[in-house]
Amino acid sequence: MLWNIALRTLLSDRGKLLAGLVGVIFSVVLVNIQGGLFFGLIHKASLLVDHSNADIWVGHRGMHNVDFPHHIPEHWIHRVRSIPGVAQAEPMRIHFSEMSLPNGDFEGVMVVGLKEGTNLGRAYEIAEGPEDGLSYTDGVVVDQCDDQKLEYPKIGETREIGGSRVRVAAKCYGVLSFLVTPYVFTTYDRVIDITDGDPSMASYFLVRVAPGIDREAVCEEIRGRLEDVTAMTSEDYAATSVRFWMTRTGIGLSFGAATALGLLVGLVMVGQTLYAMVLDRISEFATLKAMGATEREILLLLTAQSALVAVVGICIGLILTFVIKAIVSTPRAAIDIPLLLYFTSAALVLSICLLASALPYLRVRSVDPHTVLQG
Amino acid sequence: MPANHTYRMPDTIPGVQAVTSNSMDRQDNSDTASAEDHRVLLASNICKSYSIGGEPRRVLDDVDFHTYAGEMVFLCGPSGSGKSTLLSIMGCLLECDSGEVWISNRRVDQLSVAERTRVRRQNIGFVFQRFQLIRGLNAEDNVAVPLTLQGVSLNDARERSGDLLSRVGLGLHRKQQPNAMSPGQCQRVALARALITAPRLLLADEPTAALDGKSGGEVMELLAELVADTGSATVVVTHDPRILGYADRVCEIENGQFK
Description:
The structure holds two protein chains of two kinds. Chain A is α+β, with helices and mostly antiparallel strands. Chain A is built from twelve helices and twelve strands. In chain A, a hairpin with a 2-residue loop joins β7 (158-161) and β8 (164-172). In chain A, α2 packs antiparallel against α11 and α10 (295-328) runs antiparallel to α12 (358-365). Chain B has helices at residues 32-38, 83-90, 113-123, 139-149, 154-167, 183-195, 213-230; strands at residues 20-21, 39-52, 55-68, 72-76, 98-103, 106-107, 124-127, 201-205, 233-237, 249-254, 257-258. In chain B, 32% of the residues lie in helices and 25% in strands. Chain B is an alpha/beta fold. The chains are: A alpha+beta, B alpha/beta.
């Protein structure tokens, strides 16, 4: 019966119910979209690592961010290759440079050099142009999402990077850096021509281990043989790169504050709504108490109402989140919502709604059933 | 005396007197033991003061009262005479400063809040001046509330509620919301709600105050019928002289004391 009273009294006051639902929906959508934007953005910090097809990344000692490498002697790669369990190891170069634009301006780019004939480090899939674009003379691959920044380069168009001529051989889609600097992919050797770098140095060694080999053990072995390098599994280096931006920019705090604000607004709206409903029905609660409803039953009734508002609001909020994500999310402003975030946000909002029922309960608790006989 | 045990009510109650007797004056009954057996409510030496403007004001001054099963007693008196306060104390809604209240051989004035709540749920039905029906619940569900508080399943409670609503002439209004019903209909629903559990004690606070003369008369007819059916001891607080004819006894109270 408590459920019946909770449900029917809730439904009979549709205006207040709607206000409560809006609060919950707002909270759920805000938490998920804010969280999704955060994960989408922070995911870019490790995008090169996540899609590198490598098991282990080897870089200079203290490497902390994939976009900011400190170069290491290329010939050290032979020592890496000689370690038992290493199936393949290839060097990779990452250099900053500038691309000339048709209007005479320049755009900073991050040139990523990959060894030909391997997919180690190849974080992109060709979306436009030939698959073997990098094998073309002066060929580079740019991202379609950077078209606006790079003044809409066409396939086959010639540009200059660092004063050297390059040809846009193909385009990929959705490989964007955490920084505003576009990635430009080319061959390992061509990076030196373009950026005038030291040909004896590499930025990273990407390692693939043989099947069944413990990657941590291989990392340990690499660190043992090369004192000046850091070797990490891809997952660890991706996490390290993400942590770099999290700790040095305060981005986590910023997104976290916005998310917390969303939850707070939800809490206030649900609490306020339930409180207003209770105030409106205070004599009815007094009547229930006079008829013999216990404090526990009144609390259950209010909790049931909170739970109903929360569950309906969460369901609508999650559906709305799916829709917003489908419409709004792009590689540039990616909304990447892990399944865990959906569950966490739902649990969090439900908890907050249940907490919000405490406020009206305290009001009802103070109601003396005797008042119902006082007109 | 422990508060949570059942005892027999005292046999003699000093000061209890029927001011007016219509049809069922138990004190005239020669078989005193039988009368005691039918006694549902006994309040003796009840005192209650309120603090008004920092000054204590005595609202009930050593009041004695009792009522029997099936009896309908009216409490009359001017505003502020202590009628509603006495009703609240008898209904376990308010604690008295001193005195004893017994309901069905159980002393209730010393019980905890939770225990008094249980006493109300099991023994007392209330009819309020402004009906106090729960918005959002239809007539059937409103009447079913006390039953479900006693643990009856919702379906059974609805069935019994529907039967009682038919009995009070609202069989066709079972699914209607209170705001779609007339005041007279609402008070009938409230009567049905108060009596659905056949309580030992029915307390009605100005049940006709919000009704016109015709509706008030109909409600009192119905109340008398239902009380006769359930055998509930009934105490009605009223200002309405038109309904005094329904009383078995009328007790007038003034300045916190019975006349």
